[in-house]
Amino acid sequence: MDLYKRALEEYGRPFPAEVPMRREVFVAPTRAEAIRRAQPYLEEKYKAYRSWGQDKVMPEGDDFDHSFDELLEDRFLLGSPTEVADQLIRLNGRLGVNHIVASIHWPGMPNSLALEQLHLLAEEVRPLLGVAG
Asked: How many domains does the structure of the chain reveal?
């Protein structure tokens, strides 16, 4: 975000009212279950990214050539509905993010699991955010 803000300042642009962010999201009854269920798909996705060299073009400190446990620290939104809502609220407070592009379907994941995620986000997470639907 600091890099973005510096670029806005350099070009004389105001900070926008709309601040979207894309994140990998998985909702389950507990954080441990969300991690367990999402991990095989996310590991495969990021393994492919690394094989393509995509992590080599990321800004310094934002690469993803790390173990899954290290990637969990600040890259994904995983947990119970309350935990995911809290993570979204923290993103809003810390960075001003007010739109999330939730990536919920990854290579090898059954469509039924992705549809379950859409339902959980709409029915269990969104109401905790206090947004109209």
From this structure: 1
110-126 burial code (b ≥16 CB/10 A, e <16): eeeebebbeebbeeebb
Is 2 within a domain? Answer: no
Domain that holds residue 81: 18-129
Q: Rounded to whole angstroms, how far apart are CA atoms 52 and 46? A: 10
Task: Tell me whether residue 6 is in a domain.
Answer: no
Tokens of 43: 């590991």
Give the separation between CA 66 and CA 126, rounded to whole angstroms.
Answer: 31
Q: What are the pLDDT digits (tens) for 55-94?
A: 777 666 666 666 677 777 778 999 999 999 999 999 999 9
Closest alpha carbon to 24 in 94, 73, 82, 93: 73
Asked whether residue 11 is domain-assigned, the answer is: no
Q: Which amino acid is at 128?
A: L
Q: Considering only CA atoms, which of 30, 21, 33, 22 is closest in space to residue 105?
A: 22
